[in-house]
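Researcher: Batch entry, complex prediction.
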Amino acid sequence: MSEYSADEMMSVAASRALGDGMSCFVGIGLPSTAANLARRTHAPGLSLIYESGCLGAKPSRLPLSIGDGELADTADAVISVPEVFNYWLQPGRIDVGFLGAAQLDRFGNINTTVIGSDYHDPKVRLPGAGGAPEIAASCREVFVVLRQSARAFVERVDFITSFGHGTGKGDRERLGLPGAGPTLVITDLGILRPDPETRELVLTELHPGIEVEQVRAATGWKLKVSPELGETPAPTETELRVLRELKAA
Amino acid sequence: MAKVVSLSDAVAELVHDGDTVALEGFTHLIPVAAGQEIIRQGRKDLTLVRMTPDIIYDQLIGAGCARKLVFSWGGNPGVGSLHRFRDAVQHSWPVPLEIEEHSHAGMANRYVAGASGLPFAVLRGYTGTDLPAQTETIKPITCPFTGEVLTAVPALNPDVTIVHAQRADRAGNVQLWGIAGVQKEAVLAARRSLVTVEEIVDELEPRPGAVVLPAWVITAVAEVPGGASPSYAAGYYERDNSAYQAWDAISRDREEFTKWLAGVAA
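Model: Structure tokens for the complex:
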């Protein structure tokens, strides 16, 4: 087995979460890398949807932004932005929303707006919502991919840009949110899933060579570990080769 | 009926201090040259509207043209932060910047309502997020048929919308293709509009999937080859990704930015 980086493990693990024939609303960066890797390995029939209006994009290289010309040139259809949100996302036609985050909390709520408790006088002003709030609300499931650190994995996000499980079980149902919310969080250290009873994110898989204590140290709340803690299979030669070809293209 | 004019005349006539101005283009066809002409003409006190304020809005904000920004995602796509935007929000430099923050779905629907001649739009969005508490233009509304609580957002009707397209004919009919974003809606929602184009041709060749804006919905057309660079114009040129990366260094530092600005103003 070749050597691989923690980031490569994360991208591979994230790609494996996407099944063949699914439709996936893709954010740029890590989600886009994972989705394009999946399409080139085990999920050739994965339909990639970008908020720029590209449905079924099949890029030959990783796009640098969600409006990359390559996405439009290879798409099944290019439609307007109002159409993407109103006809495709809002009625729940998309299986998976694949999101990144600046901050993620114990209940899978996502912040991409501001760091600091004062919205009007933030410590750091982040890019904002983009398509994420409605992706988090309306896709059948949401997968989140981000590097794990105590700064990013916080007890409570400073600002809820995109709603995960709120304060626990029943919040989504009470608010009438149609999708299941975040069901999977993939990091460079392992995989977290919401506890079925409480909806709190718990560690369910470790990447090879990672210890539970490392993950605890990179989590800003008292992380619970699943009694059936598994180990993520290491990247295969094929996954690594395809990922590296994608990155180099 | 659209007048075919020069870019400087169009901006002088259509963009006034204090106006609400939308420059749209979703990564593709961003009207960069028109934005820089607004900087050159020294407009002040603008309310800038755009779903994805990218480097052209960073430039306008850094130049002190804006009083307020209405937006849904402010970043340098594929690169990182907009430093002039951050400096204005966090440190009021060069002037304070008021923000009105939405999601993409909210902004897109606001333009749709504007283009439709309706006072507001309805969507199933924002639920559970902290955005409605910070943005006065997001309100709950109850469906009169089902009783479901949804979200209402008011129409956006800019004083002027500026977009870039591939072509126009001499009568001012505009044709654009590729990623069309929210440009059609933004033009139709506006009181006045300017379309900069790569070229003016005798006759528009029909293209499958192209958006055509007839001359009678546009105020002015200006021929500005390369007017979307460093973004791209499908069929004409590619995105200059290095320019987006270079902007990160220029915009990070007030002094570097000020030097850059002097070059644009000259």
